[in-house]
What we know:
By secondary structure, the chain is of the alpha+beta class. 31% of the residues lie in helices and 14% in strands.
Amino acid sequence: MKITxxxxxxxTTCKQVFSLLKESGVDFTAVNYYTTPLSxxxxxxxxxxxxxxxxxxxxxxxxxxxxxxxxxxxFSDDELIQLMTAHPDLxxxxxxxxxxxxxxxxxxxxLKEILxxxxxxxxxx
Length: 125
């Protein structure tokens, strides 16, 4: 099954998850969503797979969050999705997608929840 990591390569957690995937020998694709931005359609698909609301995927400590006053509750889901696609710093990361499932791999140990639940892959976590 195809595995994709959506990441910011300079993020410490993203680096850890990327390394764990690489060390595991699993075939995966890495997407830097700063150089290959997520479309609104893709973000909606990921949110559905993550079973999260757009607000739950926001990074509330980012300067852009404060600048846009995203702590105010009047933003619709559609508006939040538009803002996250326009400002990728607002997205929690890394997101791991595998088939019909996705997880927010924070902390990196969450990989255990999605990769090989039958324990055929031993990750050094």
